[in-house]
Automatic annotation (TrEMBL):
<feature type="signal peptide">
    <location>
        <begin position="1"/>
        <end position="26"/>
    </location>
</feature>
<comment type="similarity">
    <text>Belongs to the EMP24/GP25L family.</text>
</comment>
<keyword id="KW-0472">Membrane</keyword>
<dbReference type="InterPro" id="IPR009038">
    <property type="entry name" value="GOLD_dom"/>
</dbReference>
<keyword id="KW-0732">Signal</keyword>
<keyword id="KW-0256">Endoplasmic reticulum</keyword>
<feature type="domain" description="GOLD">
    <location>
        <begin position="36"/>
        <end position="124"/>
    </location>
</feature>
<dbReference type="Pfam" id="PF01105">
    <property type="entry name" value="EMP24_GP25L"/>
</dbReference>
<dbReference type="GO" id="GO:0005789">
    <property type="term" value="C:endoplasmic reticulum membrane"/>
</dbReference>
<keyword id="KW-0812">Transmembrane</keyword>
<protein>
    <recommendedName>
        <fullName>GOLD domain-containing protein</fullName>
    </recommendedName>
</protein>
<dbReference type="InterPro" id="IPR015720">
    <property type="entry name" value="Emp24-like"/>
</dbReference>
<feature type="transmembrane region" description="Helical">
    <location>
        <begin position="182"/>
        <end position="204"/>
    </location>
</feature>
<keyword id="KW-1133">Transmembrane helix</keyword>
Length: 215
């Protein structure tokens, strides 16, 4: 009985970590004619990202909404003109910021055109994997599917902790390097001030001697 309770506690803990390690973002917003709305997200390397979108019909003819997914370097990962409803998926190549943009094109004329409703649901990490297809392809039992999900989850958590440790080491090295540079700059500033004060003393001494104010 105690082992079963312990297993349930560990399972609940892993489920909570799953919500933290994997991501699922569902949102909706209004898109006015001839405007551009973007969503940016910072993702790790080798992370699978899936998205499902739906754009309401334009109330005026000649207005379309384009969808474009790019990375920080401007590389297009997914592009769709006159996007109405669909899905996209990609795997990140490097740790950077990825941008999902909806842009409205076309003239609204002299009439006030209602804004379009854009619905976007983004998943990444373990949340983005389709375990039903994996179970069918590998002929896995329900328990084996759960174990596979927990295995992927634990691997994702380990990667997140390793990344956090790497970032902590980088930040520590940066702080130490900055502290050393500030220390040496302070010494250099003090030497400059001492040198400037010494020069002023000798200059004023020569000046007063020249004016015969002192001997």
């Amino acid at each position: 009985m105690e082992r079963r309770v312990s297993f349930l506690v560990v399972l609940a803990f892993l489920v909570v970590l799953a919500l933290l390690a994997s991501g699922s973002h569902g949102l909706s917003f209004q898109l006015a004619p001839q405007t551009r709305r973007c969503l940016k997200e910072e993702l790790h390397r080798d992370v699978m990202v899936t998205g499902e979108y739906e754009v309401s019909e334009a109330a005026a003819p000649g207005i379309r909404t384009d969808l474009r997914v790019t990375d920080s370097s401007g590389h297009i990962l997914y592009s769709k003109e006159d996007a109405k409803k669909g899905k996209f998926a990609f795997t990140t190549d490097d740790y950077e910021i990825y941008e999902i943009c909806f842009e409205s094109h076309g003239q609204a004329g002299h009439f006030r055109v209602p804004e379009q409703l854009v619905t976007l649901n983004i998943k990444h990490g373990v949340e983005a994997r389709n375990y039903e297809d994996i179970a069918k392809a590998e002929k896995l039992k329900p328990l084996e599917v759960d174990l596979r999900r927990l295995e992927d989850l634990s691997e994702s958590i380990v990667k997140d902790f390793a990344f956090m440790k790497q970032r902590e080491e980088e930040m520590r090295d940066t702080n130490e390097s900055t502290s050393a540079r500030v220390f040496y700059f302070s010494i250099f500033s003090m030497l400059c001030l001492v040198g400037l004060a010494t020069w002023q003393v000798f200059y004023l001494r020569r000046f007063f001697k020249a004016k015969k104010l002192i001997e």
